[in-house]
Amino acid sequence: MRRLAPLPALRISLLAMLAIAPALAGPKLFESTQLTPSGEYTFGIEGPAVDPQGNLYVVNLGKAGTIGRLAPEAAASEKFTELPDGSIGNAIRIDATGTLFVADYKKHNIFAIAAGTTEPRLVFHADEMSQPNDITLARDGVIYASDPAWKARSGRIWRIAKGADGALQGVAMTAPRAMGTTNGIDLSPDGRTLYVGESNSGEIWSYAIEGEALTRPKLIKTFEPNTIDGLRTDASGRLLVARILKGTIAMLAPDGRVIRDIALKAKEPTNLAFGGSDGKTVYVTQRQGGFIESFRTDIEGREHCLQMRKC
N or C end of the chain: which has fewer CB within 10 A? Predict the structure, then answer.
């Protein structure tokens, strides 16, 4: 005859399992924590991007013109490289080969740093730019760069792609409306729509991409003026927007509907990037405090999916 365990023992085992379950489940979704020490980065902390190995790169570690690297599981950043004298990075993106593309807003350059190296190589320059502020990468390697003119409270978008000789060539894209100070920028998962945040107005617009033209502009969301900075999309098409001065990341549906507002540890997020082994860790650069914080989300980032060649 089989013996059954006494009822009290069963209750104790069940309680123990319930206590262990939250620890096994890992961090809660959308709950942000500070990753690096305060003061690591300057007031110009920006441009987070994660390589295929999980290293996070951020501009202006300790002083302007540097790039810091935060290794997976590390508690502090280390210096990765420094841009040429007078150049200051504002945005970084990384392709599937591990090449870093760095937007130098001070001297109107795009640098490339090949995987396994630390030497910035000039691959694009345009005197006509006000500044390359934020950039995003398309599946075919095309770079889209926001180009704000802050004093004029205006802006435009550049399309930068390889020419017949293999060198990068750029052109300011045409658009059917006058843009405000173009800042955060990213693509939809299918690559056909470009989302652009205009900081001065707090507006986020979507555009259809037709070669060197932006068409069918649509206002999808208006926040308070001067309260939006960088933005990124995930693999489902949702937008995550850095609400600088408010201290949150707004998660939007593609039509602009607010899905949730994710509270952060400090009030001045400048930009964000997806990373982690599954692409569901969001890293946020914080101007207030000069540190990096992060939270877990439920859907992989668009660029991470491309990077891993899954999309």
Answer: N
Homologous superfamily of the 48-307 domain (CATH): TolB, C-terminal domain (2.120.10.30)
Q: What are phi and psi of 146, to 5 degrees?
A: -80, 145
Tell me the two tokens of residue 37.
């020490």
The tokens for 22 are 């939250």
Report, as an integer, the average pLDDT of 217-241.
Answer: 98
The 10s digit of each residue's pLDDT in 37-48 is: 999 999 999 999
What is the rounded CA–CA span in Å between residue 255 and residue 116? 40
What gap in Å lies between CA 21 and CA 123, rounded to an integer?
A: 50
Reading across the β-sheet that carries 89-94, which strands appear in turn? Answer: 89-94, 100-104, 109-113, 121-125
CA distances from 287 to 59, 208, 275 (A): 12, 32, 20
Q: What pLDDT is recorded for position 25?
A: 59
pTM of the model: 0.91
Domain boundaries, the chain: 48-307
SS3 assignment for 220-250: EEECCCCCCCCEEEECCCCEEEEECCCCEEE
In angstroms, the Cα distances linking 118 to 66, 92, 101, 206, 285 are: 11, 14, 12, 35, 22
3-state secondary structure of 272: strand
Q: Which two structure tokens, joined as six digits, stand for 120?
A: 């910035």
User: What is the C-alpha separation between 217 and 175, in angstroms, rounded?
Assistant: 8
Q: Residue 19: pLDDT above 70?
A: no
| DSSP code for 280 | -
Q: What residues are paired with 29 via a beta bridge?
A: 296
> Which residues does residue 94 pair with via DSSP β-bridges, in sequence order?
100
